UniProtKB/TrEMBL annotation:
<dbReference type="GO" id="GO:0071949">
    <property type="term" value="F:FAD binding"/>
</dbReference>
<feature type="domain" description="BLUF">
    <location>
        <begin position="42"/>
        <end position="132"/>
    </location>
</feature>
<dbReference type="InterPro" id="IPR036046">
    <property type="entry name" value="Acylphosphatase-like_dom_sf"/>
</dbReference>
<dbReference type="Pfam" id="PF04940">
    <property type="entry name" value="BLUF"/>
</dbReference>
<protein>
    <submittedName>
        <fullName>Sensors of blue-light using FAD</fullName>
    </submittedName>
</protein>
<dbReference type="GO" id="GO:0009882">
    <property type="term" value="F:blue light photoreceptor activity"/>
</dbReference>
<dbReference type="InterPro" id="IPR007024">
    <property type="entry name" value="BLUF_domain"/>
</dbReference>
Amino acid sequence: MKKGDIPAKRPYTSRKPRPDNPIFGFALNFTGQIGVKLITDLKQLIYISQPFGFDGPTLGTILLDARMCNERDGITGALVCRHDVYLQLLEGPADKIDATYARILRDDRHANVNELVNRTVSERIFADWAMLHDPEKSWVWSRSELADGVLKRATQAEIVEVFETLSEKAKADSSP
């Protein structure tokens, strides 16, 4: 590969502010330059929790904290939220995902945290977002379905599919 060529599968390297999209605030910078550290232990974790003290300012603080920490740690993902539930996907280096999840478990803004998916992956679903926020626009389960335990019956593939669909919608929405 010559300098300046873009590889077929672009490796994750780093993120930089994205001035054309202030809503998401961050985008990933991909490069095929020699000397770039590739992530070989890419982990994906999806969990659900109940918000404690859910309101606009609390959610704004969670998103700001997540984006800053994720930027620092090389983590991307998405948060689907509404007043009664958070459903979040995190993806990045395994050690950083584990540390992030440990912080979430200690965070008093989350109650009843339950891990739904924990797996090694070869590529990211949300490579362009430090933390995509989806205020229940893509929500597929009703409150009564959640109360009836739909997530306990859902397969990991069905849960991941929710985020894959969200990613495709977000990409389409951000295209000119």
